[in-house]
Write a structure and sequence with these properties.
Length: 245
């Protein structure tokens, strides 16, 4: 098991996954809430890093803003498909692809066939959750692969915790981090990324390619350093508040 991470340095920048990293997983995505503690903590850490903090998540930017309101942090949503930079400029968020309409009816039928399966339609991405029906996991993944096969040139499947997601090719959390690192206030800093799931491995690769630091959470993925759970991530974030430039 990798060791726990050291404190951040004043010249670092920080990228954070959301579900399973900052906030505990819930049975359904709509049940998740951003509690007052994490909102205060993120605001304070962002200030201490001169704004060099971004959220990198599979959720939509709109949903992230609702979770952490009134904060509006730099954020990459939908695994990098949409992004809001530190200046507030949105990238790609307005684009829609009607080709997903071809598979939506079949996915709805799939959810009806396997009770407990939930379709989370994010517009440009579609996630199929089976946390409430884990016995159907293999069947759901195979069915989603068959349903989306006609879109394989432009879309790919991405596994996550008790879910599989349909997303456009060419985007991931790593590509989002690279984009942030070309912009102020991230450019020139050492990147640190904290994540807990298979979808975060691209982010780990990105920061490590930039001589940065990867921090895994829990036991699904390992980074250069490791924290056991959401509570330990929050305690580590509190430690960032003691750094001085």
């Amino acid at each position: 098991m990798p060791p726990p991470p050291p404190p951040l340095a004043p010249a670092d920048c920080l990228f954070l996954d959301v579900d399973g990293t900052l906030i505990e997983f819930t049975d359904t995505p709509s049940q998740t809430v951003g509690d007052p503690e994490i909102k205060r903590l993120l605001a304070a850490v962002a200030q201490n890093l001169s704004g060099a903090l971004a959220l990198v998540t599979g959720r939509e930017i709109m949903t992230v803003d609702q979770l952490f309101a009134p904060l509006k942090l730099p954020v990459a949503g939908l695994h990098g498909v949409e992004r809001r930079d530190a200046s507030g400029t949105l990238h790609q968020a307005a684009l829609l692809d009607s080709r997903l309409n071809r598979v939506r009816p079949a996915l709805t039928l799939l959810a009806d066939s396997y009770p407990g399966t939930i379709i989370e339609d994010k517009g440009r991405n579609i996630a199929v959750h089976y946390r409430l029906a884990p016995q159907y996991g293999d069947l759901v993944r195979r069915s989603v692969a068959a349903i989306t096969a006609p879109l394989a040139d432009d879309y790919q499947l991405q596994d996550g915790l008790m879910m599989v997601e349909i997303k456009p090719r060419g985007y991931n959390k790593g590509s989002a981090i690279h984009a942030f690192m070309r912009e102020a206030p991230f450019a020139g800093r050492r990147p640190v990324f904290v994540g807990d799931d298979l979808t975060d491995r691209d982010g780990f690769s990105a920061v490590e390619s930039l001589n940065g630091v990867s921090i895994g959470v829990g036991d699904r993925v390992q980074g250069r350093y490791q924290l056991p759970d959401v509570g330990s991530v929050r305690r580590w974030l509190h430690g960032i508040l003691t750094i001085r430039g």
